[in-house]
Amino acid sequence: MSTRTAPGPRERLLDAAQELTYSHGMGVGVDTLLKSASVARRSLYEHFGGKDGLIAAVLERSTAEDEADYQRTMRAAGENPRDRLLAILDRLAEVIAQPGFRGCRYLAADLALADPDHPGHAVTRAYRERVHCLLEAEFVALGHPRPAHAADQFLLLIDGTLAAGVTRPDTDPAASARELAGQILDVPR
Q: Phi then psi for 171, rounded to 5 degrees?
């Protein structure tokens, strides 16, 4: 017989912060986080050293989940690098269509965290570098003459798609990005 254990204070704080920082922004108050997680203030400091540490931990957790989603999406698209890259934009269309979509968590964090030394910035930079590497590997496999540059451009399409998805909800930014992606993908070799 297995026993089910309830999440501890650390997990409850991460869950609450992941939800609330996405739905209400990085400026969500500590008291709101603590109340939502049903934990004492002491737990925040014991597990994360304060709100900044919690924000960085939430971003680390989110980046791991999103990076895994990119990899699943690309694997599901098969072996063709072109199909794998375009599948990312198709997946973004699905993400944008979900109820509660609020845009790119990482762009929002970078804009909201005014302190350039906030630990969250290091997390978002590292995440973008890993996504860039995933994209660049696909462009290398495609035989693109400038794979790093193409990955830069494709990452810009991803960022733009997510931003337009929240700021211009009556448009189809993923379809537009998919069309523009052809110009990156179809460079003569």
A: -110, 175
Q: Model confidence over 26-52: pLDDT tens digits?
A: 999 999 999 999 999 999 999 999 999
Nearest C-alpha neighbor of 142 from the set 92, 70, 84: 84
Exposure b/e, 148-158, CB count within 10 A at least 16 = b: eebbebbbebb
Reported pTM: 0.90
Pick the CATH number of 56-185 from 3.90.1150.10, 1.10.580.10, 1.10.357.10, 3.20.20.70: 1.10.357.10
- Do 44 and 38 form a contact (C-beta atoms < 8 A)? no
Cβ atoms within 10 Å of 6's Cβ, excluding its own: 6
